[in-house]
Amino acid sequence: MVQWNNLDTVKAYEKLQSLKDHVCLQRVLSGEDGAERVKKYVVPMAAGMTYHYAAKQVDEDVLEALKALAAEMQLTEKYEALYNGEVINTGEKRLVLHQLTRGQLGRDVVADGVNKRAFYVAQQEKVADFARRVHSGAITNAKGETFTTVVQIGIGGSDLGPRAMYLALENWARQNGTFHMEARFISNVDPDDAASVLKSIDVSRALFVLVSKSGTTLETLTNESFVKDALKNAGLDPAKHMVAVTSETSPLAKSSDYLAAFFMDDYIGGRYSSTSCVGGAVLSLAFGPDVFARFLAGAAEEDRLAANPDLLKNPAMLDALIGVYERNVQGYPATAVLPYSQALSRFPAHLQQLDMESNGKSVNRFGEKVNYVTGPVIFGEPGTNGQHSFYQLLHQGTDIVPLQFVGFRKNQAGMDVDIQGSTSQQKLCANVAAQIMAFACGKEDENPNKSFAGGRPSSIIVGEQLTPEALGALLAHFENKVMFQGFVWNLNSFDQEGVQLGKVLAKRVLAHETDGALRAFSELLAI
Amino acid sequence: MVQWNNLDTVKAYEKLQSLKDHVCLQRVLSGEDGAERVKKYVVPMAAGMTYHYAAKQVDEDVLEALKALAAEMQLTEKYEALYNGEVINTGEKRLVLHQLTRGQLGRDVVADGVNKRAFYVAQQEKVADFARRVHSGAITNAKGETFTTVVQIGIGGSDLGPRAMYLALENWARQNGTFHMEARFISNVDPDDAASVLKSIDVSRALFVLVSKSGTTLETLTNESFVKDALKNAGLDPAKHMVAVTSETSPLAKSSDYLAAFFMDDYIGGRYSSTSCVGGAVLSLAFGPDVFARFLAGAAEEDRLAANPDLLKNPAMLDALIGVYERNVQGYPATAVLPYSQALSRFPAHLQQLDMESNGKSVNRFGEKVNYVTGPVIFGEPGTNGQHSFYQLLHQGTDIVPLQFVGFRKNQAGMDVDIQGSTSQQKLCANVAAQIMAFACGKEDENPNKSFAGGRPSSIIVGEQLTPEALGALLAHFENKVMFQGFVWNLNSFDQEGVQLGKVLAKRVLAHETDGALRAFSELLAI
Q1: Which of B293, B326, B342 is the last residue of a domain?
Q2: Which candidate, B513, B377, B220, places its Cα nearest to that of A434?
Q3: Interface TM-score (ipTM) > 0.85
Q4: Of all residues in chain B, what percent carry a pLDDT higher than 70?
Q5: Mind telling me how many Å the CA of A271 is from chain B's nearest CA?
């Protein structure tokens, strides 16, 4: 049986705290020892990628302390409990099964009377079959024309992850002959969001994917009505242009309003649902089921690596523990995610949700207030754009912000240009290498305004190219990192009670059941 | 003469520090007193907007201390010095004149032998004339066809601000009959960025705006070559498809490679350049010069409000000082920007650069290290999307993150739908009102996992609709807020030495002039 303990009750944490400011990056990265360190501090990931932590403030002492922490917190055992189907989401009394959408690491998991792996695979096959029929022209609009655009209607986890994944593979798919349909996304309840998308597409050739697990998400149902009105106004039958992704028990499940319904369940949280039908429907329609299968394969391989009890061979666990060291020992309040790949432009927004919604909590899994800080603020933009923007603060600001870089040796689109002796891709890669060292080691200057203190830690994940497998591996890496950090902080990373109060109050505002300051603010906004 | 002093040397700061945790939001916002507070704590802004700070942790005591701080730090006098043309950017020994692109608050400013207001106006007129000739068909492609798309090539301030402004007014312009050309943006040196834009447009009908003040920005020149290759490959003459926005002394200024050149100068930093030709060219081409002029008028009106020495009538100064209280007294490390308007989807990314690049510094304007924290981390996404994402941490995380909301009573696109008794716009507005109160006052629950501690401060800027004037006012408000905070922290908010080291090292990597860890990282990325 695993023991669920608060971080500040375990011995290894005491040891770790004694190692504050233990490593000087300028020193360990200098000279040929520095080069050796770069070659040594690396962990293989799935899809041929590698996780590099030479520019993190760790050494053998810190790593030993992290190993002890991993063991004492039973991280491997807790992950095993999770994938073997224990009730890890204690708040909502649910299993946590998103890994099961892409592979099976442990025992058969049976819930609600069915084998859950078989259930997820069956849904994937249903999606794949539907997508193939759309692509072949077996399913068309009323005029017999093929669908050319797929529009996802969803919010939060039904939007950020699938959108980030779509953007990540759009150029790759075009280049590799697997681009079937353009995808667009409607999420915000702001009517200008839906209006803008609808004005920019041919609705008569569009297929809409409505995503809501409960079938009751207010923003999503509102946008569904918005879209249905637009379809009716164009003389079209909405039921011939929409599919639903929902749970079997939702009001949407059996509705004749949809061409098809694909099912998810309560064991997969929104922010962990990109590898379920929530991501599967739109990605299979856009790029074909085979690309989606490759994406799942990359994630599955990464999930297996996360089960390795050897910390130095487990990239997600190591990344998680270094993050805990930075947050709870070094005291850094935020983390920046900086992919050197334009295709990952919205990946930081997905990680922002994944991380901040999972671990932005003040009570442990038993509902007791914890006495240490938990999830940091997560933000980021692609490099090199960020370099010309907020990197100023990262280099010379008064707070230290740990950095997570991602880079690929090859670009996706197969177009490049040679200027001043190097290609754009080489410039991109040169910049990320340069930034790692600039942050870590800084540079003295007699003008203090031009001095760089250094000592700013970063890690980098490097891959050959952002392929479907690499993307799946990246996604799973961060899901597993967040999971391990939740275990260390003794949080339930799989509920989100913090979003409820706002919903309740908004309903009250709309019903005009308010007084005092809330009424005053509502009047201000003309409600 | 103004005195430039560090924050921790002035008396008013000592007083302010004694007021830590002085105000309990739950108390001051309760009952009818709370409603009165909402009605009282408001400052008029330009374009009919209002700044509301009832949900900030201030009261008469804190406001008195902030007034004393404003006086002792001579904030109004420093702003006067700036707009009267003193050398405020001491590091680079430059005037700071972005306000002069939209109006004249003080004396004539003469530099480089010319009246700078007249210079900026002349450039605006040149842009306006050019845009009108493009729209009328007087300037066309070689086949005599009109240009339909404008593509901005620039990075950092030449990208984030103009892109955010374009997205902010796209729907408004379509709805108001002033939409002339679609705009696209190429920024990243990642070749997939340019490839993706070029594949999605008809290059034969595209006009490219190359933006680089120095004419030497590596990313921008690389992307220019990328675009020129694409034009040549399509059998087109690049010189007939490109204009330049640059300084008069740059190598681009007199080049015959461009249809026209519009000028900026060294007195306007990239992140402050949206109201110069950097924003003016693309926005005038997209929406027409009259819309751009309305945008400038809103900014000018807001600049005038910032000159008011009465803190309670000066929204930018008040916003700035409350931010200093939150950062230096309350100790909050980050600020979230949360516009309840999909059109402002990239406004937070612009503010992230504006704020973090201006005030993310550790030395004062004389190059001496300061002993207090300066600029916070800035991040954000539009509501309601953020509600379904990172708001969990904002509501229940272990750190408090102050919030900056923005909301409008009317949407832009003129389409809406009524569901369950309310429109989408009403739902949007109800949500932001609800969130303010949920953050400020929280809610007790016997289940600690469902408890909200409250005490999380926010302000909101409210407007009738996001018009060009309102957008200009918003932009200027935040520019002036950042300026005032820089004055309080005694920083030079107008240079960015922190971006230099990375550039130097990247060049060394590309020239293969590296050793040790930097060489090892470069090899890893196949450079």
Answers
A1: B293
A2: B513
A3: yes
A4: 100
A5: 8
